[in-house]
Amino acid sequence: MNSFFARPLRNLQSNVFAGILTIGPLFITFLIFRFLLNALAEAGMPAVQLLAAFFPRASLSHPWVQSVLAVVLTLAVLYVTGKVSSFVLGRQAFRIFEAVLEKLPFIAKVYTSVRQLLDTMMAKKATSQRVVLVDFPIVGQKSIGFLTRTLTDSATGNTLAAVLLPNAINPTSAFLQILPIERVVETELSMEQAMSMLMTGGAVGPETIEYSGAREVTSELKIID
Question: Are 106 and 125 in contact (CB under 8 A)?
Fold first, then answer.
């Protein structure tokens, strides 16, 4: 009786596993795009709702119409902002805007920290490798991280590393780890490769990676402040 059900169960298991391998990358891609679209829609929704209040048409009352308009409006604002910031006058205006933000008590610290983080992650320096591996959450399990800066232990004088560990699929949330520099493993991953691995849950990435820790972070990498 067991042998009678064994083959159908094995076929069912193999087919389900094959389906997971096929649908998995598409599902992860769907989750990423849904997250991005929801973020764009939420950013533009207040303006769309204000527009619907001034122009009370039936078409603007539909939730899906408002969501589409919110996404389009947010993309338009991002495009115009990027276009304006490419001009000299736009850059000067943006510097004035940043100077105003830096005078606000709480917003200044948050904005400055986020700005420095984005500048660090988007920086492309041939002499500095920013993508590293660290033991997290336990020893023997490596996590991809971004080495943002180094510090000095006031008690021992040893060099410490500040490593940002973004969460997979949703890299907007992350852990910040302070650990000895010798526990940080240098990789040859570029920022684009690392972000692709994080955004796709590892489905997209290089064929090889430095894992064993044979190459630790060099002294050249330590000077990144």
Answer: no
Q: Which residues pair with 160 in a beta bridge?
A: 151, 180
Q: Where are the alpha helices (DSSP H) in 55-176?
A: 63-85, 88-101, 105-122
Same structural domain, 56 and 32: yes
More confident residue, 176 or 82: 176
Q: What is the pTM of this model?
A: 0.47
Looking at the fold, whether 73 and 104 belong to one and the same domain comes out as no
Predicted confidence at residue 121, as pLDDT, reads 59
CA gap 153, 38 in Å, rounded: 42
One domain, residues 199 and 143: yes
Q: Give yes or no: residues 42 and 3 share one domain.
A: yes
Say yes or no: 141 and 117 in one domain. Answer: no
- Tens of pLDDT along 182-217? 888 888 888 888 888 888 888 888 888 877 754 555
Please tell me the distance from the alpha carbon of residue 148 to that of residue 49, in angstroms, as a whole number: 40
